[in-house]
Amino acid sequence: LAGGAVPADGGVVIALERMARVRALEPGCWRIAVDAGLTTAHAQRIARENGLFLPPNPGAAEQSQLGGNLATNAAGPRAFKYGSIGGFVTGLEVAIPPGELLSIGGAASRDVAGCWLRLLPAPDTRATAVAFYPSTERLAAGVLGVLASGRVPAAVEYLDGGALSAVASTYPGDLPPAAAGAILVELDGSGREVAAAAEEIAEALGSSSLARPLTVTGPRSDRLLAWRESVSSAVAAQAGAKLSEDVSVPVEHLAQVIDAVIELGARHGLQACSWGHAGNGTIHASFLVSPESDEELTRAQQAAAELFSLTIDVGGSVSGEHGVGMLKRELLERQWPGPAVRLHRDIKSLFDPKNLMNPGKKLP
Amino acid sequence: LAGGAVPADGGVVIALERMARVRALEPGCWRIAVDAGLTTAHAQRIARENGLFLPPNPGAAEQSQLGGNLATNAAGPRAFKYGSIGGFVTGLEVAIPPGELLSIGGAASRDVAGCWLRLLPAPDTRATAVAFYPSTERLAAGVLGVLASGRVPAAVEYLDGGALSAVASTYPGDLPPAAAGAILVELDGSGREVAAAAEEIAEALGSSSLARPLTVTGPRSDRLLAWRESVSSAVAAQAGAKLSEDVSVPVEHLAQVIDAVIELGARHGLQACSWGHAGNGTIHASFLVSPESDEELTRAQQAAAELFSLTIDVGGSVSGEHGVGMLKRELLERQWPGPAVRLHRDIKSLFDPKNLMNPGKKLP
Asked: Which residues of B touch A26 (CB under 8 A)?
């Protein structure tokens, strides 16, 4: 393992960027075995070059590594249709303290140990439908309309009014002036399948949207998805920095929590906005702060704390998909019953009795 | 919990058949919350009546309960496309010794604790393609052809020659005289999608099949699947009883292991055959025995032991989807490295420190 080092708190930092081999690729059996340090983008490129497809993409694909994706069971937009990465893992090679290497599962040739991932055939066609809404309420109605359509899109994404205005100038088309939110729906499959689904999704989105939804394929679809991806950095650029939190709520509470993000920001004197994976109820809430102001950051943390309370109240989760780290470790005990937290801690200590791996990062 | 009882070995038997309520059904949000004792068939009927679909069906749907499906992460034919039941669970209410009730996850309204399952919209159309093969080798080529087609069927099932002859008289059509195996491929989706996929799947199956593959929809498709379901009891009826084992192998070893089942049976003087989920490499191997003969059962067990060895040798798993119970508990230590078995035992004892739950059923 490259780059092992002992930081001040006694934990071990493990850098895996030099463990980035493809150990085996068997396209005819829809599978690949890789090192844990291979980046998401690299694995996806290899799959694509072989007519295959690794659906989970948690974002930051050029930086994120498969080992990290697995450790956090990463999701991302296409989890709506395909689930998170755990469903694609068929074999694992893991090192546990004090230094045992063990191999579980496979679906593999017997002489190779490693992390085996199931792949899928690449869909022939992708299309993206986009629709704009005059209010959060009508946006949420659009999301429920998509669910009612009986189609299973690859992704159902949203931008609220603030997120939309942060990227308004780079929208590849004409934005309706009254737009206070947007939904993007990605469809994939065979050409005929996508064409049929696109009609029904446009109808579902259009029943509460400002203008007729637009559906595009090919490079125009890629441009729309890249535009959606640019939201996070565009929002951060507005005030110089942002505190972003990632919560997940039952989908029927989407409108309530999207509006609450803005209200919580206002109550603490901060601009706020959100975007995320609407179909899964995943909300990336951002409170904008100046990078020089510790006081603004404190207010943003107070707003985030109130957002976590609301999330728990509506039956949601304080960590939609970004994991529980130092920032949220105190919250686990509010969301989970005591025995569950205790079992979680005890299971970790079976794997890591000296608490060397990420000490204090999830459990206080 | 209804029917709790302490058997002679000190373990607790828990019967859940009276815990069979539907706690909540929210079709617009694609979800249902149920008691652990609800049968698979009941849950699937409720989903269907609401235009929805619970894909995992491990078989014996009228007897199997959702709690058992979850405990074993049950799979079944449609796991090929949809994965096993774990991917559909979003919330759990569990009782752990000494009597703590805890609730994890949800995607649920906050006042209901229980087991929440994600559902999917019901596909408009189902079709089943069937093709017959003169040899195991050509049957396995048909399976790899389906994988190479770039389509993702709901299920890819097979019957070897012995399994086929056990149900030959009830086949709803004309069986080619030289048939020594069959593949059934189930497709689901929109009408247009299924029609397009059916053409490509028929072409993939047909490149090594005896006659042109047949594709049927509607009631004829249901009849074909029911015929496939009848294999297990028809095989058992041939000699009066059978020892059935469930192994899973990398799909490229399918032909080798299907043929080995017959050879292992012959070596021990027993008729043998197999069928299963070819797309996942899951093989249900049966060794036929007379119900009166303990000696035949012993020989069947020897044949099964040799099948397990071969399975491990080719990188497969001794339990494809039926779990590890008393019959296979000694095998876990051959398939898993020592530290993995130790961690597994230690994790169980965190949940069940007095070893009351299924003592000795999986770990010796």
From this structure: 252
